[in-house]
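Below sits our specimen:

——
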Amino acid sequence: MSRFHSKGRELLILSILTQACNSLFYHPDSVIYSTPDQVGQNYESFTLPVDDQVSLHAWHVSAKKPRMGTVLHFHGNAQNMTSHFLYVYWLAEYGFDIITFDYRGYGTSTGKPTREGIYRDSLAILQEAVKRSEHLFILGQSLGGAVAIPAIAKLKPANLRGLILDSSFSSYQSIVEEKLSASLITYPIKKLLKHLVGDEYSPRDFAEQISVPTLIIHGKNDPVVPYIESKRLSEFIPHAEFWTWEGEGHTQAFASENSYRQQLVNWMLRQVSSH
């Protein structure tokens, strides 16, 4: 085989490996899993243009009690908002509006998910949420937490009362290395492969700019994003409060009726009362 063809094969392999590593972060689909009316909630469905090619699909759910604030939900990396909404719908029962949305390429949002593109989506939805709320909270779960942090650092919304990070991670490269370490095939070359994934917009690079009260929660037995990732992230955010969830699973702390829901609401109400 000629040197030209050998070089071409190496580049092809590197391209495939790079795409495989980046694909860890985005697993969208367009299935409709649930809608707010199925859990007895009133909502507005709206479309938010980001640029000439991309528009985002979002829901604004109305609080069932006198409104105490608005929660902007950044969901995780799989499926779309119609499945992840079930993690946060209960907040309407406690007097919070909910805004949830799909990144580009998820659900019926147009475009294709990329790191840069989703950053622009985050800026657009955050600007919209600021206009729609007096007391704003952001709840980012898994990938959603990592996506939200750079947008908050850029815009610094004056009415943002608190940030909740559920089962998130400190950097894209570090989570790739964690995943590669779990496989006997990729473990020997994890250091090489992780550097094929860009670390642009990684939360740890923006975390020190977060000045609002921040709550981080992570389960010690998380099989998807290791607990250590949130511990690392907490070191970069000034005065972050850390809760360890003792249950099993990923982003499950608020998935069912339990004391964590009430504790979270109490934490949010304290931030509102301080203003």
Q: What stands out?
A: Residues 3-273 form a domain with the Rossmann fold fold (CATH 3.40.50.1820). The first strand starts at residue 27 and ends at 28. The two ends are 70 Å apart (CA to CA). The chain is about 35% helix and 20% strand.
